[in-house]
Amino acid sequence: MRAARTHEAGEPTPAAPLAATPLHRIAAALAHDGLWLDVGHATLRVQGDSPHLPAQLRAVYRHFPFIDRAEWADVHCRLDRPRGLRRWLKPQVVFVSDAASIFSPFPADAPLPLFEWGCNWLIGHRMNDRLLLHAGALERDGHALLLPATPGSGKSTLTAALSLRGWRLLSDEFGVVDPDTGLVHAMLKPVALKNESIAVIRAFEPGATLGPSFPKTRKGTVAHLAASADAVARRHEAAQPAAVVLPRWEAGSSTRFEPVTPDTAFAALAFNAFNYQLLGETGFDTVVRLARQCLAWQLVYSELDDAIDTLDRAWPQALEAAAR
Amino acid sequence: MSLPVLGWLGALREPAQVLRWPLADWQTIIRLARRLRLLGRLAESAAAAGLLDAVPAPARRHLVAEIRQSRFRLRTLRWTLERVGLAFDGAGYPCVLLKGAAYVAQGLPIAAGRLPSDLDILVPRDALEDAQQRLQVHGWNEAELDAHDQQYYREWSHELPPLRHPQIGMELDLHHGILPPVARTTVDSAALLARLQPSGLPGWRVLAPVDQVLHSAAHLFLDSELRDRVRDLVDLDGMLRGFSQRQVFWDDLLARADELGLVEPLWLALHFCTRWLDTPAPADALRWLRMRGPGTAARALLLPLLDAVLTPANPDAVDTRRRDRAATLLLARHHLQRMPLRLLLPHLWHKARTRRHGQDDGDDGF
């Protein structure tokens, strides 16, 4: 690791965060060996000549260390300008992984959503050594809260809001569970906020660090919330699962918070997983264990502050149950 | 031949080789093997030799993950075979498994680590309609196609449009031949059906071993896309090693290649298998194939093109234009061999017009 050379005392110098790294150095890394982003459960290596990419990555991976050489990455990708006429006619950016171009191109000024979407797709299809729930995941007091949900249920918005109120973000997309230990691991990507959620989070926490907004992606307008310095620093700390909450945002509703039975929790976890079926018996055993050891609730809400108060009040119960 | 691009293939047969790879080699090999659809095979070989624990942890995770993925797909394939078998109960004509499904049914070593996504079945041409009806009753329906594609499949192809089932994550390709009937090289399906063998799965049969080799060779070297097809060579290598235990195998193979008009693909298969995978083959068989294969001039043109296209690109390669140009030349050759120009030109025109609307790469909820 070039950026982590040892200094006189023999102690490794921690790599400077991306936010403190000049853009030209990030661009140079992307043009040469690449930029390595260790997001906890996986390491991404990104290269490419997209001129918009350095600033966009720096905005949403701001607290991640700047690493421009490492021995290993789980996902390798390039975000390049296409060759030939395409470069000038209707400028685009292409996603190339392992010398194969696998997704449709995005407009040239939107490499970040393509990077995020492409990497998530590759992670979701490849990292089958662990159970991958489609769930928001947060940690507090050494224990994990899982929010399994279908797209459109407000999972990312609630996850983002919790991460701005003292919960440590593990992931807004992947609940990574180790079948051997039962622990929940971080997959610390920026939280992808869509459409109305962007304004909701800006209003909820004016200090939130959001990257640029990208209109007209396949999910509408998308903007990314950067993970906090603390979440980045602790991304290798796993957590014991303690609670499963099935969130549903409903316009104008008052907060409803009701316990659900372990079999409902089981179904919610199994049906909202990327690889439950693929893991076969291992997947079943892992989800049964989760449903047994966690307290589970359903949460219907429209007001974020009220929903978070409700979760904060219920949390000690979950901790207590986990301690037993 | 550098270790990363082709040299690692030896580890598929001799997994102890993986113990010599430093993490940097693993990094390249895992990326390459995945793109070539050989990662599962590599992982299963290492697992069978009890070597997974000796693999560096970052690489081991990917092997474990791929083993899970592959075993899931193979489970799905076996289950699909069971379901489809019910549809053909009492059919009275042979139902033949081709390619991957045949390797799985026979329990060949090359079945381990595969990622099957479709199931290829061959039935006699005059049973096609009945087979299709039986499948339809069991929920298998044709994907929606436009009129041109419908006509293409019915008149000029050797298989029906892919069949899909609402509850089964596997496509079914129903064949009545192994090569398109209008291609310059045609294979008489009756000759294949005359030499069927039991598969190991009740109700299902497979081609004779020599025919399986010839089918695989023809499938590779008469196909339009040869990039990232090293897996086909590995399959051929595995079959040749497994089947050639029997004394008469090679005599039979050469005679059958001649009879079916598949000398050229067999010659090409052996050319690359012996060079890249050390496939053992008797010298007189190779000499005979060279004699009967294309002339010196054609060989001098064809072999470098095939070599350029079959050699996998390094995963970090930015510029693959040399390989892609060679692929374009081979594609032109392929089209000319497959269809007469009076069919080819309207077909390509139609494809070019519809391609613009067709591109999609799925949406998995991200």
Offer a concise description of the structure.
The complex is a heterodimer of chains A (324) and B (366). Chain A is of the alpha+beta class and 324 residues long.
Question: Could you explain how this protein is built, in words?
Answer:
Chain A has helices spanning 23-31, 53-60, 86-89, 111-126, 155-163, 196-204, 229-233, 262-271, 276-279, 281-293, 304-323; strands at 35-38, 43-47, 75-80, 92-97, 100-101, 106-107, 131-140, 143-148, 168-171, 174-177, 184-185, 191-194, 214-217, 220-225, 240-249, 256-259, 295-301. With 324 residues, chain A is of the alpha+beta class. Chain A folds into 2 domains: 2-126, no CATH class; 131-323, no CATH class. In chain A, strands 7, 8, 9, 10, 11, 15, 16 and 17 form an 8-stranded mixed beta sheet that branches. In chain A, strands 1, 2, 3, 4, 5 and 6 form a 6-stranded mixed beta sheet that branches. A 3-stranded antiparallel beta sheet of chain A has the order 12-14-13. In chain A, helix 2 (53-60) links the parallel strand 2 (43-47) and strand 3 (75-80). A 7-stranded mixed beta sheet of chain B has the order 3-4-5-2-1-7-6. Chain B folds into 3 domains: 1-55, no CATH class; 74-207, Beta Polymerase, domain 2 (2-Layer Sandwich), CATH 3.30.460; 208-354, no CATH class. Chain B is built from 15 helices and 7 strands. By secondary structure, chain B is of the alpha/beta class. Chain B has helices at residues 23-35, 39-48, 57-87, 99-106, 128-137, 147-156, 189-193, 209-221, 230-243, 249-260, 263-277, 283-292, 296-310, 321-338, 341-358, and strands at 96-97, 118-122, 141-142, 163-165, 168-175, 197-198, 205-206. The A-B interface holds A 71-74, 76, 78, 80, 98-100, 102-104, 117, 120-121, 124-129, 134, 150-151, 173, 192, 218, 274-275, 277-280, 282 and B 23-24, 27, 31-32, 34-35, 58, 61-62, 64-66, 68-69, 71-72, 75, 228, 313-318, 320, 359-361, 363-366.
